[in-house]
Amino acid sequence: MAAATDTAPRVDFTTRKPRSPLRDAMNQLFKNKVAIAALVFIVLEIIIAIPPVTDLIAPFPYDRTSLYDNLAPPGAPYTGRAEEYQGKIFILGADYLGRDLLSRTLYGAQVSLAVGFVGATVSLIVGMLIGLISGYSRPAIDNLLMRLVDFLYALPLLVFIILMQVYFKAVARQQSSTVSGQFVLPDWFGWAVALIFGVAVVAGVMLARREDGGGIQYLFIFLAGAIVLSFALFIVLVMRTGRSFMASLVEIDNAFGGMFFLFIALGLLNWLGMARITRGQVLSVKKKEFVEAARAIGATDRRIISQHLLPNILGPAIVYETLAIPGYIFLEAFLSFIGLGINPPRPSWGNMISENYQGLRAAPWTVLVPSVALTLTVLAFNFLGDGLRDAFDPRLRGE
Amino acid sequence: MLQFVIRRIIWTIPVLLLVTFFTFALVRAIPGGPFDFAGDKSLPPAVVKNLEAKYHLNDPMWMQFCSYLIGDAICRPEGSEEGVSSKGVLLGDLGPSFRYRGRTVNDIISTALPISMQLGFLAMLLGIGIGIPAGIIAALKHNTPLDYSATFIAILGVSISNVVLGPFLIWVFALKLGWFPVATWKAEPLFSNIAQQYIAAGEPVPMWVNLIPKPTFDFFHHAVLPVVTLGTGLSAVLARLTRGSLLQVIREDYIRTARAKGLRERAVIVRHALKNSLIPVVTILGPMFAGVLTGTFVVEQIFAIPGLGRHFVTSVGNRDYPVVLGTTLLYAVAIVIANMLVDITYAWLDPRVRLE
Amino acid sequence: MTRNKWMALVLVLVVALLALAACAQQPAEPEVVEVTVVVEKTVVVEKEVEKVVEKTVVVEKEKVVEVTPTPPPATEVTINLNLGTEPPTLDPALATDSASIQVLGDLFAGLTWIDAETNEPVPYLAESWEVSEDGTEYTFKLRQDNNWVKYNTGTGEIEVMRPVTANDVAYGVRRTLDPRTASDYAYVLYIIKGGEELNTADVGAMSDEEVQALIDALGVEVIDDYTIKFTLADPAPYFPSIASMWVAFPMPQEVIEEKAERWIEPGIIWTNGPMVLSKWAHDDSMELRKNPHWWGADEVQLDVIQYVMVTEASTAFAMYEAGDLDVAGVPSDEIDRVKSDPVLSKEFTVTTAPCTYYYGFINTKAPVDDANVRRALSAAIDRKGLVENVTKGGQIPANTFAPSMIFGSAALDPDIAPWALPEDMGGTGYDAAVEMAKGWLADAGYADGSELGTITLMHNTSEGHARIAQAIAAMWKDALNVDVAIENQEWKVYLNTIKKDTPIEEVPHVFRLGWCADYPDQNNWLNEVFNPEIGANRVRWSNDEFVELMRKARASTDPEERKALYKRGEEILVEEAAAMAPIYYYTSVSVTKPWVTYRTYGTVGPPGIYTWKIDWEAKKAALGLQ
Fold first, then answer.
1. CATH architecture of C18-109+269-329+593-626
2. A211 FRET partner, CA 20 to 30 A, in A287, B217, C220, C450?
3. Considering only CB atoms, which chain A residues are within 8 Å of C490?
C-alpha cells in the first residue's frame, strides 16, 4: 500500500532512457508470481488440449461407455467387457453412461478452451473497435452505433439461435448430399497456417517493441489478419475442388469439429457489452487533460487512440473479458444443447455440467469435476488478466 | 439534460420499431407454427386453418404486422371482423396468447413481471451491496492475500453456473439445515384488499397492485435462496469491475493531489476516486438491471418462481408469436431506458462527458 | 437488531418499488411510454396513491372480503401436489396436455370413468348405457342429481346453478367438433357419425345454414333431459372409453357464450365434478375445493387439493423431502439414492404408464431402406441394459408398439421379436440378439456395420433423449461397428423435419418419438399412428397386409378376432418390416408420503385425485400443522 503511493510519482518525473512498452510490461509481468503461475497453468492446459496429447494422457476415449459402471464413484474399477481397458480405474469417477470423467474433462478442455479463446478474441476485437469508433467519433455516429447495440441487445436470442441452427444445419445437410467424396486438406496447409501466424506474431511483436508509436495493438491487428488469411486460404483450397462457398463453410465446420458455426454465433452475440464498456471509457478519457494536451501538440488521432486511449481502456476491458469467459463456456453448452455446435458424445465442460447437474446430490463428482476444471481455468485467466493489466498500466511501474 | 432525454426518446422509436419488425419476421421464419401440432400429432389441416384464420395468420404479412402495430381499425379491411381483434401495440394491446387460450399477453406480463421485478430488484440490491464494497476493498489492498481471496470468491461466483448453485443452496440450506423453504415465491400484494376485489369480480389483477409485495416474513424467507443465487453472480462481476477500474483511477494525478491536500483516505476514495472509476461498472449495471428485472429463466425455473423469465423461453418453443413479441418488446424498452440512464449517469460521474 | 435490519431492508424495497411502479406500466404500451417515463414519473405515482386510498376505503366499508390465509387452516383436509406446469387451458374442448387433463378430471364429470385398477370404463355421469346389436348406437342414461356449481371468489361459497342434462353433453360434443372451436383433440370423436365431416369442414366458405346442417347431421341425439344417444360411423367397442374423455364432457353453454375465452377462470367457471376451482394463480399455484353438492361428496375425503406448478423435477423432489409436497416424481439421477435410502425407499413406487418410447426408421432412406438392416439395428439395442442403467425408472423393455394395458396389445409376447426381450422375460437375451443382428446385416450384404456409412440419429432437444441416444449409439458401435452421428433439434423444428414430405436428404435415418394412449385400445396405437394411409407415416413405409389388417380390425366387433388381427399387425410392424424399433414401455416413478393412504396412478385418463385418501392426523403431526 505504502509503496504504491510513494514510489509512483517518481516514475513520472525521472527522465530515463525510453524503453519499449512491451518489454516493460513483460518485465512487470514476470515479477508477478501469481500471474506467472496462472500463465503456466494455462499453457499446460493448452498443451493438454492438443488432440494427440489428450489422446496420449486420457485413460479412456471420451465416448467409451460402460453401462454397468454408470455413476461409478472416484477410484472405482472398470467392469466393462472391452479387453483393452481391463484393470483400469475411473480416477475421478464416471458419469451416467459409465464414461470416465477424467478423460471427458481432459477432452472437454479442447472445446471449452477454444470457445473461451474465440469468444474472448472476437468480443475484444469487435467490441473494442466498435466502442472506440463510437466513443471517439462525432455524436451522430456514436448515437447510431449505440442504437444498433440497443437493437441487438433486444433481439430475442433464442429465436436467433434456433434460426441459425436450422439454417446452418440445412446448409450442411444439403451440401453433404450434393457434394460427393470427402474433402482432404493438403498436407502443407498446417505448415502454411503456422507460417502465417509465425510471421504475424513476429511482425506484431517487432512493431509493438518499436519505441515510438508502437503498441500492443499491432499484435492484435496482425493476429486478426492472420486468422482472416488462414480462412481465406482454406476457402480458396476448398473452392478449387469445385465446391461452392457454402460448401467450403461446411468443410470449415467439419475441420473445426462442428464448432465453426458455433463460433460465428458466439462472435455475433458477444461483443455488445464490450462495446458499451469501451465507449464509456473513451467518452470519459478523451476529455482528460493529457489527451487534450496531446491533441494540442498536434498528435494524430491514431496516436491519441493508441498511446492514450487504449491503455486506459485495456484495464476494464481485460477484467470484463476474463469474467465473460465462463459465460461463453456456458453459452456453448446451451448452443450445443439446442443443436448448434458440437454433437454428443463429444464433451465440453459446459455440457458436462448441464447434463449432470440433476445428479448433484446422488453423484456430486459428476458435477464437481468439470466445475472445478472450469473454475480453475477462469481463475487462471483472471489472475493472468490482472497481471497483464498491472503490467500495461504505466502508473503502476516500479511498484 | 431535458433536451438529451427528449432526443433519446425520439431515437427510441426507430429502435423499438426495428426490434418489433425483426422479431416479428424472425419468429415467423422458424419452422413450425403455433398450431400445426398438438403434442406430436399433426392436426387436421382444417383445424389448423380455422385456428390460423381466427388469429389472422393467413393474412398477408404486412397486414399482420400493421395490425399488430397500430390496430385493426386502420390496417384490416372491413368484412374480416371475425376472429381476434387487435387494438395495436401503440394503444398497449399486445394481443392474445396462442398457447394459453383465454389469456392475453398483457395479462401474462402483468402477473409475471411484478414477480420478476421483485426478485431482480432484491438480487441487484444484494449484488451492488456486496459487489461494490468488496471491489473497493480488493483495490485498496491490491495484490495482498485479501485481494487474492476476494478475486477467488468472485471467480467462484461467476464460474459456478446457477443451475448448480441453486440446487446446491436448496440442498444445504433448505434440506440439510432447514433454514429456508425450498422454493416458490410468496408475494402477497401490499394492497391485498384491492387485489381481492378484482379476484372476487373474476377480473385480472392489474400490474401495479401486484408490484409491491407485502413485506412479510414469509416473503423474505422465501426470497433468500433465489436472491442469493441470482445475486452472487452479479456481485462477483461488480466486485471485479469495481476493483479493476478503481485501481486504474487510484493512481491518477488528481487523487495524489487530493491526498497531498491532506484529505482523509476515506474522503479521497469515496468522493474522488470511486466516482470516477464507476463508469465501467455503471455501463454494465444498465443491461444487468434490464435483464434481471425482466426475468431470469434459470433461477425462476429452479425456485419455481412464476416470473416472466420462463415466458421468454417457452413462448419460442410454443411459437406463441404474440408472447415472443411482447416479452421482447418489454425487454427492448427496459434496455433502451437502462442505457439512457447509464448515459445520463456518465455525465454525473464525470462532468467532462457531455450529453450530446 | 435483526428486526431493525429487516425493517430497513423493507423500507428500501418499498421506496424503490414505488419508484419502479412508475415505469412498470410503460412496457405494455412502449410507444407511449417514452414520453412519460422521466418527465411524468412523480405524477404517475401520485395518481396511483390516490387510487389506492379510494379503493381501500371502499373495502373497509364492505368488510366482507376475507383475506385468504396463506397456510390452509388445519381443519381442512388438504393434499399438496405438484402439477408440474401451468395448464394451458381448463376448457375441456381445448385441453391436450396431462396437467390440464388431470385438473379437468376432478372438476368435471364425464359420462363414464376409467377405473384406475381395471382400465375399464365404469358408470359415472351416465348411470348405464346400452349398445345396439350392430355396435353403432350407444344410448346413455344420465343421473338426475348432478348440478352445475360455481365457486364464488368473493364469499368462498359454492353455488348451485342448475341440473346437468343431456343437452349439456350434446353441446359439449358439438362444441368440440365444431371447427370454429378449433379443438386439437376433436379427432378422437371422429368415430361419431358425421364428426369428421363437421370438424374438417371449411366453415369460412360456408353459410351459417350449411354449418348448422352439418351440426344437425352429427350422430348425437338428445332423447330426453337425461338420455342421450350416439350414432357411430363404425362399430367401436371402445366407445364407452372415449365417452370418458374430456372432449366429451358436458359443458355449460350459457357461461361459455357469455364469457367467451375467459369462462375458465375461477369465479366464472361452472363445473359438475367432485371438486371446484377456487383459485388459479397463473404459473404459480391452483386450488381445488370439494364440491359438497356432488352426488358422491360423502365419499370424498379431501377438502382441498393444493397444486403448485414446479417445472424443475429436482426442485419438486426437494420440496417433497422438505414436506411441502405429499407426492413427487423422482428425477432419474436421484433414483439410485432413493432406492438405497431407508426412508425414501419405502415411499418409492414404480407404476406402468400407457406409453411407449420408440425409434422410427425412415424406411425409404438408404441404407435403412432394407428391413434386414432395420431389424439388425433394432436387435442391437440392449433394452435391458438401457432401462437398468440409463433411464433407471423400472421401465420395461418393449418388443411391441402398444404396452400391455392396451386392448389388443401383444406386449411381452415372445412370439414377436424375441430378440428385443431379455432371457428372464422369455426372450433370447442381448448376446444372442447381437449374433442375430450380425446375421441380418450379412443378409443385407454388409459384412461389417461400418459399411453402412454414418447413420444419423436425431432426437428432439432434451437431456433425457440425449442420454438414451448416446447409449444406443454406443451399443450400435460396440455390437455392429456402426458409426452414428447424433443430432438434435428444437421440438417443433424437429417435428417438421421428420414429416413424411420433407426431402429425403434432410431427414435423419433414425428418429425418436413416444406415444401415449388417448384411450386404451389398439386402434389408437397401430391404426392411428402407423397405418400408412391414415397416420402421419413419419417412417414412410407402405404395407398392404398391414393396411388390410387395420381395416378389418376396425370393422370387427369380436374381441378375439381383433386381438388376433392386431397381434399380426405388431408382428409386421416390429419384426417383419421392422419399420420401427420399440424401446421401452414408460413407467411413472414417484414417492408418496406415508400418510397418503390411498392413491391412484392415472394410467389412461385423469387420475381422479378426489378419490385419494390421507391420514390427516398423521400429516398434521408430521408437519407440525395446527
1. 3-Layer(aba) Sandwich (3.40)
2. A287
3. 162, 165, 338-339
